[in-house]
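seq as requested:
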Amino acid sequence: MSAEPEVRPRQRDGLNVAVVHDQLRQAILSGDVPPGPATSQLVLARELGVGRTPLREALRMLQSEGLVISEPNRRVRIADLSVADAEELYVMRILLEAVAAQITVPTLDDRDIAELEGLMAQMDHLVHANASFREAHHQFHARFVQAAGPRVVRQITQLFDHAERYRRAFGATEPDHWTARRSEHRQILDAAAAGEARATGAAIAAHYLRTAKLVAEALDPSYDLARLRVAIEFVAPGIVDEV
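struct tokens:
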């Protein structure tokens, strides 16, 4: 008598998809799986040591994020780093976070400001120790948008993660970069501590503008950041000349 086929619980399948999604997403964001020529799902599953079924579902999720591009014959390609994509990413970050900061800053109390000061100190310490300050950096920026609502916060978090690909590729996660950009974070925090919501949003916009220009200069110095100018003029017209 033949054995009954194994029936895997639906919840177990879902868990596997979530695990594979997180594994592949982190590999893409960190650059461990770089942009490049298309590959087959079979080869990708073998390289990652995962099943093809959860991989297929995970790829669909990553495609909806814009990290993966689906091609004919079940081939996939990790989305390229491009100046147009970077501009779009920073347009979204500037518009969302500048507004979210103006919603959040009036809700911040002394404890929140103290926590932000602690995160600044933590980033300084990690940089001097030549260690990754990514998590502290993420927490710092997250504090300024926390009152904007869960859907907005989720979108901002995803954009922060996507920007990591560009920060890593163009040196924005290196200790030297933090040393040069520390004053920008200080300006954001000082404006928030003073209760100046609009100035906080403008400082965030200026901070992201400089990162976007760094990426654009590396990818295509002749590229016209026209969309970024419109975003900056809307949220922080005083710095539009910097674009």
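The first strand starts at residue 39 and ends at 40.
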